[in-house]
Amino acid sequence: MDSTPTPLPPLPRAKPGEVLLLCACYEDDGRARWGGLLGEIDGRPEDGALVLGGHRTRLRPVEGTGWSYLRGGSVPALVPDCGDTAPKVLVMADIPVVYGGDGPLLVDLAEIPGRGVRVPSSRLGAILDQLRGEELTFDDLVRDMDTRGMYQGDCGRPAFPAPTSPSRRSFPPLTATDACLLVRTCFDDDEGWHALLDELGGTDELGWVGADPDLDDIDVDHFPLTALAVDDRAYEGLLPGQVPALVPPEEHTTLVALADTRTFTQPGRPLTVVDLYDAPGNTAVLPCDQVGSLACNLDIANMDFSDFVAVEGVRPWWEE
After folding, report:
1. How far, CA to CA in Å, does 288 sit from each of 197, 198, 257, 306?
2. Which candidate in 50, 214, 220, 227 could, as Cys together with 182 as Cys, close a disulfide (CB 3.0–4.6 Å)?
3. Sign of the four-CA dihedral 72, 73, 78, 83
4. Rounded CA separation 286/271 (Å)
5. Does residue 262 register a pLDDT over 70?
6. For the whole model, what pTM was predicted?
7. Containing H/E element for 192?
8. Residue 137 carries which DSSP code?
9. Which residues 6+ apart lie within 8 Å of 22 measured at CB?
10. 3-state SS string over 242-280?
11. Which tens digits make up the pLDDT trace of 134-153?
12. CB 285 within 8 A of CB 262
């Protein structure tokens, strides 16, 4: 049997003045699931697009089961080259929209392609107009999002906001895995890197940390992290917002944890963990012995990524 993954279909070109509204969630019979989004944005159909009352930007709904469960970080690779008229953003109706009632996900296609921010459905048209008119940038959206990745949301400011300026634009794709990746991005402290790996249980011959934990010795409050360690200078300086676009789409990677400068200079060897799903590029900065618990809870859908994002001015629950 051929196990080669089916390539994701390319997205259509957006017409001038339009932004694609992509459905990433489908019924078993192939019908698109939009949740309540189409009603919430109050769009008027016109020539296959949706005209949002009082706003210049039109939305063009795009459906197809080839995009089922598509991650926001995978979107930029599917956008056709349009030169100077390339779209700056795409809107997604994904699982959090359909099943969680969250706002639509805006995916950056220009500044740091692949990162995402959620916006209130009722403000979608106004925000798209502001982005199109350059009254807002995607950096502005990221800087003003709450711990759940919602632009101007009410869940508190993140204690460790994600950087908005990329170090450089080109990094190789990350290894495909349905588990976690631990990526070294700071190469100033070899001894510290090896100490981190030892603290996480050491690596096996394939480079996995925590691959074979002793179940009798597991501390449930500090669940061991199982991750493929990536020690490659090609990723030096990689920032969280750049990560989602580098994760291959064929595997359901749980998370990517970055061992950055903070890891080697602060107590607890904190790792910068990157959200790949709810708000791609959003970060949670955790002591290294807490990252396994985050991964485990995401795997079993027991907690959300945002539950591990520290709130500015509030002591994190795992330190209480």
Report:
1. 10, 11, 9, 17
2. 227
3. positive
4. 6
5. yes
6. 0.93
7. helix 190-199
8. -
9. 11, 62, 67, 70, 75, 90, 91, 92, 93
10. HCHHHCCCCCCCCEEEEECHHHHHCCCCCEEEECCCCCC
11. 999 999 999 999 999 999 99
12. yes
